[in-house]
């Protein structure tokens, strides 16, 4: 099957399940036309409802069962369709068919999510983000199930229930929702010190991404590539966003949770609807099997990264998300990912966290999706045919024909039959395994602080400040003072300066007599300040009133649009606002419907309004919020009085409209920078 035909096949396959009800006659689920849908069948107009009203019972039963159990973790998610295009053949490393021919395209479905919160929680909470990709390949479905952080809290899957029990709302009062700032989580951290490295990531800016489109994705685990000759390489997977890696600031993230709890899904949906398709490049890190033990960390340890300076990331292809879902429940909620969904040429390692996930994911789908036939749901169906002797069960859609459902057999000439490796049959890598049965962990997994220190060393001054603030907030929410002290003492092993700053903020004793990590190396790839900085798809609020300078505004707005930015005209009320030069602009939002935190930058045009006091107050609030969140601010000649009435000051990222010929470009450049950390806010530079 060719790549293009493969994609068309998946779209055509889904077509048979799409149902457009508009213009159709109502029927029962059995196809019977309905004559009445307003009143149940009763014994007289005021009498009791009769049991024989099969339509009422079908309708009500279906409603009662509309909700399936939400995911225990990653419940709050959003997804999109797309395609993966291979840049470079990986034939030397893997026999996976979709990684052989440069230019070949494979359909994908990608789901982003938070981890801790319920399905109804806000999206900008401090949390890990899930990043799961289903490749519909000609050899079957391949699922790359990862996160936006390359490491994890624990080393062995047997501890996963403990981690989630600790981070979920506390059982005695079911609080807090979608938050790790509480006693049980930090009690778990302090008593399970393998979490140290992940906590540094979790309290960094990576935990509050600006957008799903602006965060990295990682496979987390060490997998194997195996080529046609049986040669294996260890591999880690990376998704690199073309827009760069960018984040919110904590105050902003908290406010967005109230202003728009759907902020991230709205951002993804609108980008795709606007034709700003979402692009991630796929990279791999490869280690030859003979080099397995040449590093000062165990490459199978899921709490460790392979520093990119030691093991470079090789970019091999690009994923483009270009189509939104038709129905969130049928696709986003019912999609079933599993790290055990692999294709020939991709295999596992003895990472104990990965080994446990290979059991857990199937077990989870069985209860969420009602039984063993979740693979038959349209979003989960592979594009290639599937045949086996599995039968029946809840939700079975296949109508199996014939009397044979076992292997071996003679009635069906021993079919369906197995395939040899040469025919594309999956054969597990023949790794030699020997040892006594034992419940223990390798000594090579026991260093918990070196890479946590590497991460800390690699942060900029601004990023370190944000980590200290995050610790201060999270541990400050812990009621038990002993746990606060345990956390301070634990992270003194990473960096005494960090622990001392946290101790001062949360009222704990300063750490003494600790063995601080002596790691001095840095990894520039870990800092977001080294990321791509582009204005594309950034969102700008134009704050405008009557009587504005039309020529000036048109020049700046055109510069923003030409740079690929989205512009919203924000005023005191909906309708049309007229400028001095007879330029009329349609108002997109009002001060009541949006907020400064929902934009990447603001352009203060100013003007007049019926209620100038309120217009001024709302404009000044926008300016103050943008300024303290280090966002770019452009001020038109007619907007200076509003800027002067605010707490903002001229300086980095503030563009004052003097030379209109350079004004637009200067603003676009300021937006591309994302944040202006050298700006002094409350006397402190970002």
TrEMBL record:
Assigned EC number: 1.11.1.6
Annotated SUPFAM superfamilies: Class I glutamine amidotransferase-like, Heme-dependent catalase-like
Listed GO MF terms: catalase activity
Protein name: Catalase
Names of the cofactor(s): heme
Family: Belongs to the catalase family. HPII subfamily.
Record's keyword terms, sorted: Heme, Hydrogen peroxide, Iron, Metal-binding, Oxidoreductase, Peroxidase
Basic and acidic residues compositional bias, start-end: 7-24
Signal peptide, first to last residue: none
Domain Catalase core, residue spans: 27-415
Catalytic reaction annotation: 2 H2O2 = O2 + 2 H2O
């Amino acid at each position: 099957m060719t790549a293009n035909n493969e994609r068309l096949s998946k779209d055509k396959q889904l077509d048979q399940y799409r149902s457009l009800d508009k213009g159709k006659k109502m029927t029962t689920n059995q196809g019977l036309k309905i004559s009445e849908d307003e009143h149940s069948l009763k014994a007289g107009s005021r009498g009791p409802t009769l049991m024989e009203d099969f339509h009422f019972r079908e309708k009500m039963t279906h409603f009662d069962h509309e909700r399936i159990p939400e995911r225990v973790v990653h419940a709050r998610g959003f997804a999109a369709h797309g395609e993966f295009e291979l840049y470079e053949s990986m034939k030397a490393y893997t026999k996976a068919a979709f990684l052989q021919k440069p230019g070949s395209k494979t359909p994908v479905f990608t789901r982003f999510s938070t981890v801790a919160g319920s399905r109804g929680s806000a999206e900008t909470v401090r949390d890990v983000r899930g990043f799961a990709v289903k490749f519909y390949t000609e050899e079957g479905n391949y699922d790359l199930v990862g996160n936006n952080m390359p490491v994890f809290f624990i080393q062995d899957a047997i501890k996963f229930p403990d981690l989630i029990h600790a981070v979920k709302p506390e059982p005695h009062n079911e609080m807090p929702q979608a938050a790790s700032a509480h006693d049980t989580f930090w009690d778990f951290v302090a008593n399970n010190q393998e979490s140290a490295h992940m906590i540094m990531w979790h309290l960094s800016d990576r935990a509050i991404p600006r957008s799903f489109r602006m965060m990295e994705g990682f496979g987390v685990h060490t997998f194997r590539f195996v080529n046609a000759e049986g040669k294996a390489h260890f591999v880690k997977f990376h998704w690199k966003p073309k827009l760069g890696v960018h984040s919110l600031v904590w105050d902003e993230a908290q406010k967005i949770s109230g202003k728009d709890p759907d902020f991230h899904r709205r951002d993804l949906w609108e980008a795709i609807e606007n034709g700003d398709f979402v692009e991630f490049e796929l990279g791999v890190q490869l280690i030859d099997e003979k080099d397995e033990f040449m590093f000062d960390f165990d490459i199978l340890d899921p709490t460790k990264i392979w520093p990119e300076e030691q093991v470079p990331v090789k970019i091999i292809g690009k994923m483009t998300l270009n189509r939104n879902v038709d129905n969130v429940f049928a696709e986003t909620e019912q999609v079933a990912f599993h790290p055990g969904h692999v294709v020939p040429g991709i295999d596992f390692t003895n990472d104990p966290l990965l080994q446990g996930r290979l059991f857990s994911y199937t077990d989870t789908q069985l209860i969420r999706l009602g039984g063993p036939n979740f693979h038959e749901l349209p979003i989960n169906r592979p594009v290639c045919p599937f045949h086996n002797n599995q039968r029946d069960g809840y939700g079975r859609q296949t109508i199996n024909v014939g009397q044979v459902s076992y292997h071996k057999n003679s009635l069906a000439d021993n079919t369906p039959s197995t395939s040899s490796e040469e025919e594309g049959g999956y054969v597990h890598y023949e790794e030699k395994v020997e040892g006594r049965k034992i419940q223990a962990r390798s000594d090579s997994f026991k260093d918990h602080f070196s890479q946590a220190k590497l991460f800390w060393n690699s942060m900029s001054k601004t990023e370190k400040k944000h980590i200290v603030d995050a610790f201060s907030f999270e541990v400050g929410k812990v009621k038990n003072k002993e746990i606060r002290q345990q956390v301070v003492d634990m992270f003194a092993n990473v960096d005494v300066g960090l622990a001392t700053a946290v101790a001062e903020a949360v009222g704990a004793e300063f750490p003494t007599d600790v063995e601080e990590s002596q790691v001095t190396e840095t990894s520039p790839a870990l800092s977001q300040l080294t990321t791509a900085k582009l204005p594309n798809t950034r969102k700008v609020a134009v704050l405008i009133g009557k009587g504005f300078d039309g020529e000036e505004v048109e020049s700046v707005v055109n510069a923003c649009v030409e740079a690929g930015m989205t512009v919203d005209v924000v005023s005191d009320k909906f309708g049309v606002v007229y400028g001095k030069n007879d330029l009329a602009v349609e108002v997109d939002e009002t001060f009541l419907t949006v907020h400064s935190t929902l934009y990447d930058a603001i352009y203060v045009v100013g003007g007049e309004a019926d209620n100038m006091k309120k217009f001024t107050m709302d404009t000044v609030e926008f300016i103050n919020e943008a300024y303290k969140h280090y966002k770019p601010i452009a001020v038109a000649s007619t907007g200076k009085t509003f800027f002067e009435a605010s707490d903002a000051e001229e300086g980095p990222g503030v563009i004052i409209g003097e030379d209109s010929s350079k004004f637009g470009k200067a603003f676009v450049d300021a937006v591309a920078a994302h944040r202006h950390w050298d700006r002094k806010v409350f006397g402190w530079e970002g």
